[in-house]
Amino acid sequence: MKRGIKHDFSLLALLLIPVGVSLNVVGYQLSTILKLPVFIDQIGTIMVSMIAGPWIGLLAGLLGNVVNGMLNPIAIGFSIVSVSVGLVSGYFSKWRFYTNIFGIIIACVLLTIVQAFSAAIVTVFLFGGVTGAGTDLITATFLATGRELWNSVVSTNLISGAVNTIINFGISWLIIRKVPDRFLIKLNYGAPYIKKEVNVNG
Amino acid sequence: MDSRIGNLYPSSKFTFIILIILLSMLVPGFIFQYMIFLFIFLISLFSGTAIKFLSTFMKSIPILILFIFIFQVFLIVNEDSQQIWAFIHFSQIGLMTSLTMTSKIVAISSSIIWFFQVTRVKDIIYALEQSGVSQKVTFVIASTIQLIPQMLNLSRTIADAQKSRGIETEGTLFVRMKAFIPMIGPLVLSSIQQIEERVLALESRAFSSKAKKTSIYELRKQKIDYIIVIFCILVLIVYIVWRIKL
User: Which residue among A111, A165, A196, B38 is the one 20 to 30 A from A43 at the CA level?
Assistant: First the structure.
């Protein structure tokens, strides 16, 4: 199966983008309904990037934040975070990190780092260290203990990012396990998640 | 949206907010940027979206601005910080930083809110198609905006169905976390089934064909659209020339 930026945009993969974006929104809504302390709003991006590759993941992340930005313009500033998460997690899927437990652990750690640093760059440069969410209290606590702004923002994002990545990834992995094989086989990056042994070239 | 401003061609409104964003980044200080907020509010009065504009704005921006002030003025230690109590400082530099920063955030975000409130998504997609963007891209944008409310409704139905079958949605954190999978699983699986059907439907209507397609919905550029675009470009050029000469 041919992969790469020219071959990834099949119609099936393109139609996955709206589903991924709406899953992000639904995940966010459900986590408020269930009163969870973390916001599970990246399931769609991670799931789509796992089965449809880095470029579709990147687009799903970008579009999700732009659509959110219609109501809350701050989200547009943070689109770089979901774009990098989609891209990086798509490459991990391409390199088959998600098929064994060690790969999954390494991927989660790296995803957390990517998420934390991209979020920290946006937070510090555009919003002076503030995100307008509950995690600001953690940043404030770090600042009060005398740490510098960069240090506090990155530490906050590493803590909240680790929890978020593990939950988002765990849920998308569980969902992909339940997606039927005949759908996965049509996607460029779906082959590693097929339950039966199938010979696929590439 | 049916006002005179709402019926303008999307690209002329887009040029206008690009001008505002550029100006609010180029102009030093913070008074001009705060004036832009009042100016956008006035425009949204004329376009009949003032109440919607204010409620959207109030939902997200003020809390962010408040936090920025608290962080920059009282918490971050600058060279001129004076201790007030324990870890709380007061800093003049921090006050200036937060004023310039928040003024830009206010100006840019209010113009973006205004743009999306006076422009129909249908118009944006039509204008994108006319300017040569691939139909695949515009289709993805359009179906995303359509699909989100549908999926939200479906997720509510699924949540009710699962509750009636005895899934616990209240209790300890672990119990609530466990409820997440049975609620979101059926949603994904049913939407994947829908995708397969939609691919067949689209392909049978020659979606991937390279031929030029016509649109049943039409939007024409009026004279005022050209005037607005030329005016915006002129303002930017005049401002840049004036700054260089100064």
Answer: A196
